[in-house]
């Protein structure tokens, strides 16, 4: 049985050896350990992959021991994941198909260790892609008047399919606060600029207007403030005066795909931790 | 005799063939032609390298003909440079030596086709570098009270040495409007962020605070508005949670050097044109 | 009517102005001109986009004039393409779907200005992708005994569908000499290494074995010698000791997709010229 | 007292907790831990930074305990470094000054935590740079007839100045086997290609000939076989048909500087381990 444990707590002497000894005493072999100390904030972060090969422990007993022997004395916030359980990812889209196609073809070739119970959209346009890949598609239109109904329907679907996290694959609608609160650091967005430059609408137009020589894309967790959540992944590509806005958009699409898929993979592999509106990314 | 001609004018049919015919009729061979049309603005840009090998024309006659036959009918703004004349570049610095060392070692190895008549600084710290390379160093301190005197001294030096353009190699002082006006699109600055993100002071601190995964540097022509002039060159490098502010600064230094030196080279080779607060860069 | 003309010929004085004048005299407006001189080889290259807006010429007359007035006196090799005609691209695949999905989703979103008459494979595995996108799929198995039959069937299909160029989207079989001869500089391959390093089979394994810190992908025109044809496009990504061969393969897939699609786009837009087993790429 | 311990040994269960407990029991606080398992080879690698703040141990006792309690039972190869001791780096150069200037200006600004006792060259050309920076310069010419004398003089200087490692900053001469044997994995070379492509002489010429679209530089430890030692760092930059060999060389110089300086920093910080002619680089 493989497990992944994520921990953060106030930095103290001896944490690493205490935690590693705990794992060892309980029959686990540590496969991979990552840690980070934010010295300014005085916070310790750790990610531990362990293998309980021949000594499969009772999970709830293990968790209780961990809580009593480690989490409480060290004031840890922590979570433990069982390796074999695939998280359930909902894909939210609008009209652009490039990120959707990219994620689905990766899913199709076994690159993403998730289940995709459904695709949700505020427009009907991309139903055909869902059909190509045999995945349920739900059209939940959102207008000023139907906002609350839409939110309820979204939440109902999320509950019914026991969704673990949401990927906004160019979902062109603001996600409501209620949903953000229900899925803290579990909604991944792709913004088509190199944040914090060009937050908000029409970033490619703004980038063109400013005459930048490099454009970017940013994947981040969604928080209350628009395009201001913890950044998971960014990438850039060069542009020149010879590119018009349409070229920016086309070049940007390739960035969006790659940046979003990398962020999704990091999240699936539980390699991201959030603290102080920033991410610790264990790679 | 090699010449470089830069032109911009309202876009019209037939410009390219008219200009190329003019060169040919006057005994020149076109070595390299670059052009660009900004379709939105309706502006045509052109850069022409020609060789008047066996038929060295009288320059002032050539210029007059160009003005009458081409510039006036097509409403061109244009300039003609003689290839053999090296422009004179003033280096302005403060306390950081990395960009200065980088430019001087390139100059030293023949990579920059310029003359460097002097290095100017508002601090005495880097005089030793000037001495290492045998270049005159002028210390012009700037304080609230001496601002005007300093400006006058700066202008006097610029005039005395017939400076063509200024490179601010981490000059940590705002250049006065009078100097900007005297050297329009001829003052090259390096800003240590990926503009327009993190304009102004302490960009590495701001980038660290925001938790970005990529940092950058931007070289631009200095205009009235701080860090908002036409961008010549940008580049970026990746960072992670494991880098602290000092790491950002160290990694950033390498970017600053490379971005500034590229911008300086483009300017020296007359490969930059400015329009609408943006650059056309012919590479 | 928009046209693109590609020319290469011995370098001589006056070519640019002669060609641009020709276009102008025949009612065309030059939209974009690219040229290059290989000084060592003494060869001149040119790509001309022209718009014959109000004066649509008779194409065969235009071609004849060009041949007589320009091509013969300047010993040009040249070709003229009409902008509105989409080239016909055959996709050859084997078992990997990532490049296929990538190209088809770009095609689907209008990014590729081609027709795709069919997908051909030596294996039946990817027929389902062809079906997803509604494109005919032909399974032409290749074994030692059936090599000649397969080649005949391949050529028959190419002729029947009037294919202009072939994209080997991870076609894991050597293309026969007869087909290479029929489609000179018209077969685009993607090789999963940074050529010339790791030519031949299993490049990711070889790269892993050597302990490189960067892996790459290369798109090139297919010639007689394996993986040695003119390079169109290359890109790379970083790897580390923490990546195993499977990681190399996964990371490499993203490179292969992006590099192949860029090469295909350059070819479609007639931005590639081949000379001396190298490419001139006009961007 | 800060220490860095590097370990590699056959992979076994419980190593991490055993080592971390050892440090803790001996009064150390683990600041940073990096580990890697090469699963194919069955080898475990670890790098441990520890701080013995209030309990400064006797180093030789600590080493003896480590040897008995850990190294012997686990068959470890290991080394322990005291943080405060700066390694001594010899710079070997020939005629090109770019890498030398780059390293010296970094050294000058405090970026490299080393001592540089001397610069050695087989040519007198760069003595002026040594003088600029006030570092002793030794001219040790190498010819067919004087090879052995030169080697002896090189070794004598290395011994006299107690050199820890050598940086070949474009030293254009093959280092003798005797010296390689004396400094195993302690001689850092910069090769001006993306190895394994274009090993040997004139890599930029070979790259130009092949028509690559990307050129690179590689820093590696020197081993018996030319340009085939363990790779520490690589980087690349794009080129096009418009660049001639001189452009390749100029662009390449920037790569060489950055790649070499990164490799030197990794070595200084003891972040490199060598196994099976490959490196594990802890970043």
From TrEMBL, chains A, B, C, D:
CDD domains, alphabetized: ACT_F4HF-DF, FMT_core_Formyl-FH4-Hydrolase_C
ACT domain sequence ranges: 4-84
Any Pfam family the entry gives: ACT
UniProt name for this protein: Formyltetrahydrofolate deformylase
Keyword Phosphoprotein assigned: no
Annotated keywords: Hydrolase, One-carbon metabolism, Purine biosynthesis
Family, similarity comment: Belongs to the PurU family.
GO biological process entries: 'de novo' IMP biosynthetic process; one-carbon metabolic process
EC number: 3.5.1.10
Statement: the UniProt record of this protein carries the keyword Hydrolase: yes
Catalytic reaction list: (6R)-10-formyltetrahydrofolate + H2O = (6S)-5,6,7,8-tetrahydrofolate + formate + H(+)
Pathway: Purine metabolism; IMP biosynthesis via de novo pathway; formate from 10-formyl-5,6,7,8-tetrahydrofolate: step 1/1
Catalytic center residues: 227
Database matches in Gene3D superfamilies: 3.30.70.260, Formyl transferase, N-terminal domain
Purpose: Catalyzes the hydrolysis of 10-formyltetrahydrofolate (formyl-FH4) to formate and tetrahydrofolate (FH4).
One Gene Ontology MF term: formyltetrahydrofolate deformylase activity
Superkingdom of origin: Bacteria
Taxonomic source organism: Arenibacter nanhaiticus
InterPro entries: ACT-like_dom_sf, ACT_dom, Formyl-FH4-Hydrolase_C, Formyl_transf_N, Formyl_transf_N_sf, PurU, PurU_ACT
């Amino acid at each position: 049985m493989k497990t992944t444990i994520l921990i953060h707590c106030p930095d103290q002497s001896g944490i690493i050896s205490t935690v590693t000894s705990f794992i060892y005493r309980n029959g686990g072999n540590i496969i991979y350990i990552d840690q980070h100390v934010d010295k300014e904030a005085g916070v310790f972060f750790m990610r531990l992959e362990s293998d309980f090969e021949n000594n499969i422990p009772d999970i709830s007993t293990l968790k209780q021991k961990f809580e009593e022997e480690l989490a409480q004395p060290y004031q840890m916030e922590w979570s433990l994941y069982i390796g074999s359980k695939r998280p359930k990812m909902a894909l939210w889209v609008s009209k652009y198909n490039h990120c959707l196609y990219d994620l689905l073809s990766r899913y199709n070739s076994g690159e993403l260790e998730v289940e995709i119970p459904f695709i949700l959209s505020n427009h009907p346009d991309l139903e055909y892609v869902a059909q190509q890949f045999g995945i349920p598609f739900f059209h939940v239109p959102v207008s000023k008047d139907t906002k609350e109904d839409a939110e309820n329907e979204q939440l109902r679907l999320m509950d019914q399919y026991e969704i673990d996290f949401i990927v906004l694959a160019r979902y062109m609608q603001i996600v409501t606060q209620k949903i953000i609160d229900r899925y803290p650091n579990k909604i991944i967005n792709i913004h088509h600029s190199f944040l914090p430059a060009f937050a908000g609408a029409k970033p490619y137009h703004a980038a063109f207007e400013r005459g930048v020589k490099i454009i970017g894309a940013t994947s981040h967790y969604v928080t209350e403030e628009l395009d201001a959540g913890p950044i998971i992944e960014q990438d850039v590509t060069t542009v020149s005066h010879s590119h018009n806005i349409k070229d920016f958009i086309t070049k940007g699409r390739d960035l969006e795909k790659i940046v979003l898929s990398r962020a999704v993979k990091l999240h699936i592999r539980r390699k991201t931790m959030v603290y102080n509106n920033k991410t610790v990314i264990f790679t």
